[in-house]
Amino acid sequence: MSEISDQHKTVLDNLVAASKRAGLPAADLVAVSKVQPDARIKEMLKTGQRIFGENRVQEAQTRWGETFADYREGLELRLIGPLQSNKAADAAALFDVIETVDREKLLKALMKAAGDAGKMPRLYVQVNTGEEDQKSGVLPADLPAFLKTMRGTYDLEPEGLMCIPPLGEAASPHFWLLANLAKANGVSKLSMGMSGDYEIAAEMGATSVRVGSALFGARKPK
User: Fold this and answer.
1) pTM for the whole structure
2) 64: which residues sit within 8 A by CB, 6+ positions away?
3) What is the pLDDT of residues 98-109, one digit of tens each?
4) In whole angstroms, what is the distance from residue 162 CA to residue 155 CA?
5) pLDDT, tens digit, for every residue of 128-159?
6) How many CB atoms are closer than 10 A to CB 196?
7) Exposure pattern of 90-107 as b/e (b: 16+ CB <10 Å)?
8) How far is CA 127 from the centre of its chain?
9) Torsion sign across C-alpha atoms 124, 129, 131, 132
10) Whole-angstrom Cα distance, residue 128 to residue 98?
């Protein structure tokens, strides 16, 4: 087995065990393929991994529309990085899930893009649980109103909520907050947890975790 295959098995085993400890179904594993070399992506595809997360629309278009276009059928692609409204059309055409919806302008752009593409990706609302000025996401206090607009004005039902806890802080309070926000607002799925805390996230109700370095090894800078 290759190193990546070994790492993939380890993460999956840890994920299943963490969910089992909490008495929950195993969370989906999203392999974060951003900035990874083609060779590592190819090895990950050989493991049978079928859900991949990307941060940038243009990079994902090159990877999954060109380099690995032959593998695209049967994969689920998730956009887990910020989305500019002017990239909504490209994102709607490429991705199955967009996890970073956070403003009404983007909802408008996605509605138009979905009409042009003939499909609407499944949508997650990103919540800025740490209320960080530099980070995208709806503030927790603003989430009910945003969801009301999303559902009432645009007739869009969010599949889930997503968060990225602040660096240097314990992740569990943010996972707890996101889970409670989802419950209070009738949202069923939770995208939370990364390489350093995916097991904690699974124990706290994550339905999907976004794992990069624990699967692929450290990313090489561009």
Assistant:
1) 0.95
2) 52, 54, 71, 72, 75, 77, 94
3) 999 999 999 999
4) 20
5) 999 999 999 999 999 999 999 999 999 999 99
6) 12
7) bbbbbbebbbbbbeeebb
8) 12
9) negative
10) 16
